[in-house]
Write a structure and sequence with these properties.
Blueprint: H1 3-20, H2 27-38, E1 46-50, H3 56-65, E2 70-75, E3 85-89, H4 95-105, E4 109-114, H5 124-145, E5 146-157, H6 162-170, E6 173-179, E7 190-198, E8 215-216
Parallel strand pairs: 1-2, 1-4, 2-3, 4-5
Antiparallel strand pairs: 5-7, 6-7, 6-8
Helix pairs in contact: 2-3
Bound molecules: S-adenosylmethionine.
Residues 24-25, 27-28, 51-57, 74-77, 91-93, 115-117, 134 line the site of S-adenosylmethionine.
């Protein structure tokens, strides 16, 4: 049994499991695994989900924050209603969407999560550049919206702009790690940036990167 065969079988497993548990996407398990490892959610917390359609991450976030928590999401696509979750349709690269989302949230967030993906062009470097652009918008949103101490999780497609972008993330968070959850497809160039300990909007100090889980960056 090759590693690839084992990984593909596991992927089928996540697809089937998502159907069984009524999750809207197999991506739910990626967020579940990230939270198990890094503890990004807290009961009663506020969460903003960027690129949330069809809603698999929203479902996990709502489960984790519970009835007293708040979950809001945005996507270019329509998101079918989910109990206890508020969503809007819009483009996160546009200021009016950012303002609409911030007013829907109505305060600060404990966690910002972004699974935004560009339309795949097939060109590795172009897809990477577009992914970095979406992550840059997610980072700016997080800087304006997170409470000090809050967390940011972002999907990024790997490539040569990665290190510069990570340096930018490290200016605002005390811990920054790269993580590939087991539920990610083996063929994908996606990886997740898990940034914890938001330093606050004004502080742009040098980072200190440490902790037991994930890959140090
Ligand atoms: C992989 S899907 C997200 C899956 C979701 N996490 C789930 O569990 O159901 C990526 C989403 O990013 C959205 N997206 C891409 N660019 C965006 C943008 N500029 N603003 C808002 N959403 C965007 C896409 O429409 C797509 O639905």
């Amino acid at each position: 049994m090759s590693k690839r065969w084992l990984k593909e079988r596991r992927q089928d497993f996540y697809y089937r499991k998502a159907k069984q548990l009524n999750y809207r996407s197999r991506a739910s398990f990626k967020l579940h695994q990230i939270d198990e490892r890094f503890g990004i959610f807290q009961e009663g917390g506020s969460v903003v989900d960027l690129g949330a359609a069809p809603g698999g991450w929203l479902q996990i976030a709502k489960e984790r924050v519970g009835p007293k928590g708040k979950v809001v999401g945005v996507d270019l696509q329509h998101i079918a209603p989910l109990e206890g979750v508020s969503t809007i349709r819009g483009d996160m690269t546009r200021p009016e969407t950012v303002e609409e989302l911030r007013s829907l949230l109505g305060g600060k967030a404990d966690t910002v999560i972004s699974d935004m993906s560009p339309n795949i062009s097939g060109s590795y470097s172009m897809d990477h550049a577009r992914s970095v652009d979406l992550c840059t918008h997610a980072l700016e949103f997080a800087r304006r919206t997170l409470r000090p101490g809050g967390s940011l999780v972002m999907k990024i497609f790997e490539g040569d702009m990665m290190n510069d972008f990570l340096s930018e993330v490290k200016k605002s968070f005390s811990s920054v790690r790269l993580h590939s959850p087991k539920a990610s497809r083996s063929s994908s160039s996606e990886i997740y940036i898990v940034a914890k300990g938001f330093k606050g909007p004004a502080e742009q100090a040098a980072p200190s990167v440490s902790g037991p889980a994930g890959l140090e960056v």
